[in-house]
Amino acid sequence: MYRLILLSILLCFSSCKNQEKQNTTVTSSSEEQNKPNIIIFYVDDLGYGDLGCYGAIGVETPNIDKLAENGIKFTDAHSPAATCTPSRYSLLTGEYAFRKNAAILPGDAPILIKPGIPTLPAMLKKAGYKTGVVGKWHLGIGNGNIDWNSEVKPGPLEIGFDYSFLLPATGDRVPTVYLENHNVVNLKANDSLTVNYKNPIGNDPTGISNPELLRQKADEQHSQAIVNGISRIGYQDGGKEALWVDEDFPKIFSDKAKNFINTNKDTPFFLYFAFHDIHVPRVPNEKFIGKSSMGLRGDAIAQMDWVTGNILDELKRLKLDKNTLVIFTSDNGPVLDDGYEDEAEEKLGDHKPSGPFRGGKYSAFEAGTRVPMITHWPNNIKQGESDALISHIDFYASLASLLNIELESKEAIDSENTINALLNADSEARSLLLEESFTLSLRTKEWKYTAPLSKKNTPAWLSNKKIEMGLSPKPQLYNISNDIKEQHNVVSDNKMLVKRMQARIDSIIKIK
Questions:
Q1: Alpha helix ranges (H) inside 204-276
Q2: What pairs with residue 130 in β-bridges?
Q3: In a 3-state reduction of DSSP, which class is residue 115?
Q4: Where in the chain do CATH 3.30.1120.10 domains reside?
């Protein structure tokens, strides 16, 4: 009863915004140190158990393990959502994605973060930072009717980035070209690029018409345009010299990141490095084939570790490593079979991508959003392992606090200042955290409540993912402190607590 009373007080008075005003800002010994370079490595579909320092079996991740050894390894860190587009939206805006009905976007979707919306890079520019994004975007681009043969905008440059080099959507969607700032790379004037997500165009083969051309068999959704022996979602025609080769991603993306760092080495910079790995299609460079015992998914993890180390080595070469805050994490939990037959399930062995947790990508269970996270900043971090409850949505307010930037009242409305936890393994962060999937869940250090979702509102395609989704037409409550696998729904014994937690979710939804 005493515990219930305490939680009731927490739910009544805790705010998902106000902790930033209560925490003491961490400052460094000099003004220059107080403006560190900032790099966020945002991996795609990396699970809690997919790194060596988190217990991976069958693949080695020495570069990332070293980051953890000399930084802070978080055990209760969460992506804002269990899927990619919503998590990326929340990270860059400090706002829950459900407020914009943000979901996984098609490749030709208009930009989700409209120019004028406050963003993390725009906020950092106020403090004198040069800002860049390299890698997978998947936040929409253009105005909904894109001409890929001219300037493509609005995009990252219109929402706070000084430089961008992107996969416009994802590796499994057309257009399969790089977009640097406003223009498609290597696109020739006499070979225009056309993209269509509704109807076939041109005469090129597809995964449906010519499956014999495929290096990996794919489901029907991913069986349209074939590029580099891999079928994708959507159709495209032309732009032949601009088409990417998947195996080139690690070198091209890491080179672009290093170029950005070198260009801006004399001024504070922010780099958002958004990996395509280990998202499907998994087509690692031959350098990494066989580096794991888990086939292509494991080899893609090894590739991702190499890219991370390659960029970190450049920081050391330039003597920037000691004044660079590195945040390494993932946009959501893991998935094995996500549209391509790459033997991720068959070659898994004893490896547990979700670690000790239930579920994975898309899921309302913990593994949907509980992901690996590491912070590293030599001489400015108290190292160790942290069990602080923390979300990527908090990076916005936390970095603003670090740089003494006062946020506007309607800016980053869901972001809390957790800078102390990001820099000190012994510090606490949130008392209350929202997890987004296809429903909403509420976490405290002890409890996990998941709101009910009717069957008619559950996407039918989820049944193909072979993941426990954690969705139910009935409410779910787990004592997460002693039931991390979420095996025992204790709603019937805690009806008042369930009512209060649902009321807290309702109050968060109403914030504007």
A1: 249-263
A2: 269
A3: coil
A4: 436-510
- Binned at pLDDT 50, 70 and 90, residue 4 comes out as very low
The residue written with tokens 């080595």 in the block is: 313
* CATH class name, domain 436-510: alpha beta
3-state helix/strand/coil string of 343-401: CCCCCCCCCCCCCCCCCCCCCCCHHHCECCEEEECCCCCECEEECCCEEHHHHHHHHHH
**CA-based nearest residue to 83, from 99, 97, 100:** 97
Q: At what angle do helices 62-69 and 295-317 cross, to 10 degrees?
A: 60
**pLDDT at residue 507 in the model:** 97
Q: What is the DSSP string of 476-489?
A: EEEETTT-TT----
Hey, what amino acid is at 2?
Y
User: In this structure, what DSSP letter does residue 407 have?
Assistant: P
Whether 5 has a pLDDT exceeding 50, the answer reads no
Q: Using a pLDDT cut of 90, give the percent of the chain over it.
A: 88
- 43, 329 contact by CB (below 8 A): yes
Name the residue type at position 46. L
Contact (CB, 8 A) for 340 and 31: no
Interatomic CA distance for residues 72 and 382, integer angstroms: 7
Q: Which residues pair with 132 in a beta bridge?
A: 163, 271
CA distances from 220 to 101, 131, 209, 233, 341 (A): 26, 39, 11, 9, 12
Nearest to 129 by CA among 405, 466, 336, 417: 405
Collect all residues with Cβ–Cβ distance below 8 Å to 482 and sequence separation of at least 6. none
Q: What is the pLDDT of residues 161-196, one digit of tens each?
A: 999 999 999 999 999 999 999 999 999 999 999 999
Task: Name the residue among 47, 67, 68 with its Cα closest to residue 59.
Answer: 47
Closest among 55, 98, 71 to 436, alpha carbons compared: 98
Residue 319 identity (one-letter amino acid):
K
Q: In whole angstroms, what is the distance from residue 32 CA to residue 36 CA?
A: 7
In sequence order, which residues have a C-beta less than 8 Å from that of residue 499 and are 6 or more positions away?
Answer: none
pLDDT score of 6 more than 70: no
At 442-482, the pLDDT tens digits run: 999 999 999 999 877 777 777 778 899 999 999 999 999 99
Q: How high is the pLDDT of residue 105?
A: 84
pLDDT for 168: 94
Token reading at 275: 């990996």
Closest by Cα among 304, 307, 214 to 255? 307
The CATH code of the domain at 17-193+238-431 is 3.40.720.10
Buried b / exposed e along 338-349 (16+ C-beta atoms within 10 A): bbbebbbeebbe
- pTM here? 0.94
pLDDT of residue 34: 66
